[in-house]
Amino acid sequence: MKLLFIGSRLYDDINWYVKEKNIESILTESNEEAINLDLPDQVFIVPRGMEGPKQVALMQNVDAIVPLIGIDPPLIDVAYMKEEIEKEYNIPVIAAGIRAVDLTSDKIKTKSFYDEINVVTPTYQILNDPEDLTLDFPVVLKQGHGQGGRNIKIANNISDVKEYFNDFDVALCEKFIEGAEISIEVLSYNGEIIPLSPIYKGETTLEGTHPLNKVKNGPCQIEGLDNNLIQHVAYKIAKNLDSDGIFEMDFMYSRIDNQLYAIEVNTRPNGTRYLTAATCGINSLCELINMAIGEFSIKNILDKMEYNYACEIPVGYFNGKSPKNPAKSFKHNDYVVHGPEAYQRITLKAKSKKNLENLIDELGL
């Protein structure tokens, strides 16, 4: 089996699994100084865009293509390549299609999509002028495109809104939800859809604290909220997107309203994946490989499913004992360290809450 991987930044997460499966690995990357270029069997440096990877895939006669792209802008190009190469060359591309990317990469289109499929999302309006605001404060101002918390502002008064419009001509304006932030990964391929364990990412704050600066926990355990509901809504969204790959879905739960609100969807590998893997034993990036080699199914996922307690803690620099190889896998580890230096996070797992607390103490966290 020969697979083409697009993008090197995430490759060290799955290199061990590629070797375990005896897969011949070919990788394309546009940056010749990128990390992980020493790991695959072959590497091709290509121009930005999808024409280079497509030509390498055809030249090398690969069995499938697995994009490992963690940012939004290239996703639509990947989707167009997927449509072309699957139709003309019958080579599977394990990624979301054009419609799914179009709907999820634009937050305004995502809102309309939620409305169409009757999924509850915070009340919103498209704001072209601060004076047109009809929602009560506080409100959240966003741009249609963007990731990582960029261009988002919590406005407590009209002055905050006017300040936001100094930089932008239009805004997606939605009601601020006081409550819990939740993420869930959903795997989907050839019509088989399975939501994984919901993850608790902390409480919303008027200061807009980024989730990377919070301690996260898995599985989500919020009084009054059934995780089955989160998984049910996530399944409904994925089913209506009708596409392949990984979906990361963000929700908020208001204890005041006793309501789960859908916020957004990402059709790419995401930062929740380590905590998901620690909690339920399913590594979403490895499942992309399983989709490519014909070993993905709901039955196989359920057979591998674990039930752990897990947490993810920002540490900046981790000076403790290094995890065993493969260092980015929980196969032989109770904890994994990830992220760039000065922004490292550690994700830990245990079979009980008490054991998890002991592990945290043992590592001096």
Automatic annotation (TrEMBL):
Binds 2 magnesium or manganese ions per subunit. Residues 111-293 form the ATP-grasp domain. It is an enzyme of class 6 (ligase). Its EC number is 6.3.4.16. Its cofactor is Mg(2+); Mn(2+). One of its GO terms (cellular component) is cytosol. The keyword Protein biosynthesis does not apply. It catalyses: hydrogencarbonate + NH4(+) + 2 ATP = carbamoyl phosphate + 2 ADP + phosphate + 2 H(+). InterPro entries: ATP-grasp (IPR011761), ATP-grasp_PylC-type (IPR003806), CPSase_Archaea (IPR043673). It comes from the Archaea. GO terms for molecular function: ATP binding; carbamoyl-phosphate synthase (ammonia) activity; magnesium ion binding; manganese ion binding. ATP binds at residues 134-183. Keywords: ATP-binding, Ligase, Magnesium, Manganese, Metal-binding, Nucleotide-binding. Pfam families: ATP-grasp_3. Belongs to the small carbamoyl-phosphate synthase family. Catalyzes the synthesis of carbamoyl phosphate from ATP, ammonium and bicarbonate. Proceeds via a three-step mechanism, i.e. the phosphorylation of hydrogencarbonate to carboxyphosphate, a nucleophilic attack of ammonia on carboxyphosphate yielding carbamate, and the phosphorylation of carbamate forming carbamoyl phosphate. This is Carbamoyl-phosphate synthase. It comes from Methanobrevibacter oralis.
